[in-house]
Write a structure and sequence with these properties.
This protein is mainly β. The protein is built from 1 helix and 45 strands.
C-alpha cells in the first residue's frame, strides 16, 4: 500500500487549522500532483498526490482521501461545519465559490455551500450559484457536446435593450431589469365615436370633452397612394376600437354595398403630399367641435391621418363586430378582428396594412366582440343570448353557447375575471357567462330600460347602457352593478335632452361615457359624484364597442409584454430547440408568463403556433414535441393585480442543438 503521510496546513483568509491525510507520495510530473494549491486555491503546497490517491475510492482520485473529513460524501461527526472552497475537489474555475461550508448530514459531509460571489447556473458543468450542484434545474446536459446556449440580461454579454418594436408597457429599472411601466405612461385621453348617419368618426378629448378631429369613415376615391376605395355614401360606421398607440379602427356596415374597415392614426401621421406638414382635421376656430363645411377643420379623404381602408368580405357582408387582440412581435400594435354579420365569419387583419391574416367561420351572426386576457375572442348574436368563442392564438372557433335563461344580447364585454357579459336588448338587464365553469347569471334592471352597450371597470363593476323602456319610451341612462353577484344596482340619469344611450365605456381617469344616438352627443359621468356633462358629436352617434381602448389595456392585455428573438444554428443546419430559462422576482399578486413560437423566418413567427403559457423556469421544450425552426420568439408577459407592484424580470436564456453536428 502506498505510504501515508499526514499534512498540516493553514487555510489562508479564514485562519482555520485543518488536518488532511494524503494517500500517496505523488509524482511531480503529474498534472494532479498538487491537490491543494498550484497557486489556485490559496491553501499552500502541503499535500502531494499521484493519480492513484485512493484505490478503493477512484472517484476521489483528484482529492485528498476521506481521512481529511473535508470532502463531499466523506464520514463526519454531527455538528462539524468546516469551511471550504468548492473548487478543491473539482480543479475547475477555482474561486467561484468562496468561504463556503460543508455540513454533516447522516454522518457524511455535504457539498461545499457558499454564496460570496453568486451567479446564475449555466450549461458549463460549474457550480455557478454556489449551492453544491452543477447545472441543476437545467436540461442542457442532455445536449452533450452539441448543446448551444445564450443568456441575456444584466451581467451577461447581452444586456436587455427596450425599443419601440420589442416591448409594450415596460421599462428598465436602475439595475437593467425589465419591469412594468408606470400607469401614467400608458393613459390615453381620447375616445372615438362613429357618426353613422354622416359616415364620419369624431375624436373626443376625454379630459375636456372637446371634439378635436372628425374623419371620413371610409376612403372611396381612387387613390394613387393605395390607401383604399369605398363608396362615398352609406358607409354607416358603427363599432370603433382603439389600439395601444391610440389609433382607431372603424367598421363600416355599408348595407347592400361593399363593407370596409378603416384605420386612423392618433399621432405620427404621414406627410403624404410632401408639403412638410401633416394635413389633418383640427378644431381651427377653437369652439370645441369640428365644422364639416370648413376645409380647415374637416378634410375628408385628403386627411393624412387616415391610414387605409380595406374591403371586408363580399358585397353586403355587413362588418359589425370589432375587437383588437394583444398583438404579437409588432410591439404596440394588435391584430384587428372584424365580424362580417351576413357571412357568419370573422376576418383577422394585419395591423400594418389591414390585409387578411385569417378567416374563421362561426355558428352565428357576429354583432359584437370582446377579447379576454387569454386571447379568446367572444362574440354574440343580437337578441338571442347566443355567444361563440374564437381562440385568437390559433384562429379556431368553438361551439355556439346559449346563455341559460337569457334570450337577449347586444353589446358584449369581458370583465377582470375573464367572464363574458352581454346586454339585454328586448330585455331589461344583462347576463353573464363564465367560461371557467360554464355557469350563467342574469341581472334584471326592471323599469330602467333594455340593455344595449356594456362595459366593465377596474373596480369589479359592470356598466350597462339603456335606450328605451320595454313599452317604447326612449331614455338616456346607464346603470352600475357588482360583477360578482349583480348587487348594488345604481342608476345614473343623463340630461333630459340626451336620449337613447346605446354605448357605454370607461376612460383612463375613471369617468364613464355614454353614447346617445337620438341626441347626437356623448355624456361624461363622474361615478363618485353623479355629475354629468354632455358634448355634441356628429349625426347618428352609434358606438358601443371599446371606443376608448380601456378594455384592451385592462382586460385583453392587462400587462406589459417583451419579445425577444433567438437565432439558432448557422444555415443550412437545422435547429432543434431544447429549453428556455429565465430569472425573475415575482411578488404575490404578480405573474411572469412565457410563450414561444418557432419559424424559419422572422416574418413567419407572426403566424406560427404559439406554445404556452409557461410560468415556471426552466421550460423543457423537448416535452412540447419536436420544435424546429431557425428562429425562436420568446414572449414574456409581466402582469400584476396590485397597484404600483411589478414583477422584476432579470434574465432570459435559450438552449438548442444543431442537427448533424459532431
Amino acid at each position: 500500500m502506498a505510504l501515508r503521510k499526514w499534512c498540516v496546513f493553514v487555510l489562508i483568509g479564514f485562519a482555520i487549522m485543518s488536518v488532511r491525510g494524503c494517500d500517496c507520495a505523488g509524482d511531480p510530473g503529474d498534472p494532479y500532483k498538487d491537490c491543494l494549491d498550484n497557486d489556485l486555491d490559496g491553501y499552500g503546497d502541503n499535500c502531494m498526490l499521484g493519480p492513484d490517491c485512493d484505490d478503493e475510492n477512484p472517484d476521489l482520485n483528484f482529492s485528498c482521501d476521506c481521512d481529511v473529513l473535508e470532502y463531499e460524501g466523506c464520514p463526519c461527526t454531527e455538528g462539524e461545519e468546516p469551511e471550504c472552497w468548492e473548487a478543491d475537489a473539482k480543479f475547475l474555475d477555482v474561486g467561484i465559490c468562496k468561504a463556503g461550508k460543508r455540513f454533516c448530514e447522516n454522518e457524511k459531509f455535504t457539498a461545499c455551500i457558499g454564496q460570496v460571489l453568486p451567479e446564475k447556473e449555466r450549461c458549463d458543468n460549474i457550480d455557478n450559484d454556489c449551492d453544491g450542484s452543477t447545472d441543476e434545474m437545467l436540461t442542457c446536459t442532455d445536449c452533450g457536446p452539441r448543446c448551444h446556449g445564450v443568456d441575456t440580461g444584466p451581467g451577461t454579454e447581452q444586456e436587455f435593450e427596450l425599443d419601440d418594436d420589442n416591448n409594450r408597457g415596460l421599462e428598465m429599472d436602475p439595475n437593467g431589469n425589465i419591469v412594468l411601466e408606470e400607469g401614467e405612461n400608458i393613459r390615453l385621453t381620447f375616445l372615438y365615436v362613429a357618426n353613422s348617419d354622416e359616415g364620419t368618426v369624431s375624436k373626443i378629448n376625454t379630459e375636456t370633452g372637446q371634439e378635436e378631429g372628425r374623419y371620413i369613415s371610409a376612403l372611396y376615391s381612387p387613390d394613387p397612394r393605395n390607401r383604399g376605395s369605398a363608396r362615398a355614401s352609406g358607409n354607416a360606421p358603427s363599432r370603433t376600437a382603439v389600439d395601444f398607440n391610440g389609433d382607431v379602427w372603424v367598421a363600416n356596415r355599408a348595407f347592400n354595398q361593399q363593407g370596409t374597415v378603416t384605420k386612423i392614426a392618433h399621432q405620427n401621421c404621414p406627410d403624404l403630399n410632401g408639403n412638410q406638414q401633416v394635413d389633418t382635421s383640427r378644431d381651427a376656430n377653437g369652439n370645441g367641435r369640428i365644422e364639416l363645411g370648413d376645409p380647415a377643420e374637416y378634410l375628408g379623404e385628403a386627411d393624412e391621418c387616415i391610414l387605409f381602408t380595406v374591403n371586408i368580405g363580399g358585397n353586403n357582408s355587413v362588418p359589425r363586430a370589432l375587437a383588437l387582440d394583444a398583438g404579437g412581435i409588432e410591439g404596440g400594435m394588435g391584430n384587428a378582428w372584424v365580424g362580417a354579420y351576413s357571412e357568419n365569419k370573422f376576418y383577422k387583419l394585419d395591423p400594418s396594412d389591414g390585409h387578411v391574416l385569417a378567416e374563421v367561420a362561426i355558428g352565428l351572426h357576429p354583432y359584437g366582440a370582446a377579447i379576454d386576457s387569454k386571447g379568446i375572442l367572444w362574440s354574440c348574436q343580437q337578441a338571442t343570448g347566443r355567444i361563440v368563442s374564437i381562440d385568437t392564438n390559433n384562429n379556431t372557433a368553438g361551439d355556439v353557447i346559449q346563455i341559460e335563461g337569457w334570450s337577449g344580447s347586444y353589446g358584449i364585454a369581458v370583465d377582470m375575471k375573464d367572464r363574458v357579459w352581454v346586454g339585454g336588448y328586448q330585455l331589461e338587464g344583462a347576463a353573464r357567462y363564465d367560461p371557467a365553469d360554464g355557469s350563467s347569471m342574469t341581472v334584471p334592471t326592471p323599469n330602467v330600460g333594455v340593455g344595449r352597450g356594456i362595459a366593465a371597470d377596474a373596480d369589479g363593476n359592470i356598466w350597462l347602457a339603456h335606450s328605451w323602456l320595454t313599452g317604447g319610451t326612449r331614455v338616456g341612462r346607464v346603470t352600475r352593478f357588482n360583477s360578482d353577484d349583480g348587487s348594488q344596482l345604481q342608476t345614473f340619469e343623463f340630461p333630459s335632452g340626451s336620449l337613447e344611450t346605446i354605448g357605454v365605456g370607461l376612460d383612463f381617469d375613471g369617468y364613464v361615457w355614454g353614447v346617445n344616438r337620438q341626441s347626437d352627443d356623448t355624456c361624461k359621468l363622474d361615478p363618485g359624484t353623479g355629475a354629468v356633462e354632455c358634448y355634441p358629436t356628429g349625426a347618428g352617434t352609434y358606438t358601443y364597442s371599446d371606443f376608448t381602448g380601456f378594455a384592451l389595456r385592462n382586460f385583453t392585455a392587462p400587462r406589459g409584454t417583451y419579445w425577444q428573438v433567438f437565432e439558432g444554428c448557422a444555415l443550412p443546419t437545422e435547429t432543434r430547440w431544447k429549453q428556455v430559462t429565465w430569472e425573475a422576482t415575482v411578488p404575490d399578486g404578480t405573474l411572469v408568463t412565457i410563450y414561444v413560437k418557432f419559424a424559419d423566418t422572422i416574418d413567419g413567427l407572426q403566424s406560427a403556433t404559439r406554445y404556452g403559457p409557461f410560468t415556471e423556469s426552466p421550460v423543457d421544450l423537448i416535452a412540447e414535441g419536436v420544435l424546429e425552426g431557425h428562429y425562436m420568439l420568446v414572449e414574456v408577459i409581466l402582469s400584476t393585480d396590485v397597484e404600483d407592484l411589478t414583477p422584476i424580470f432579470k434574465g432570459l436564456g435559450a438552449q438548442w442543438v444543431c442537427q448533424g453536428e459532431n
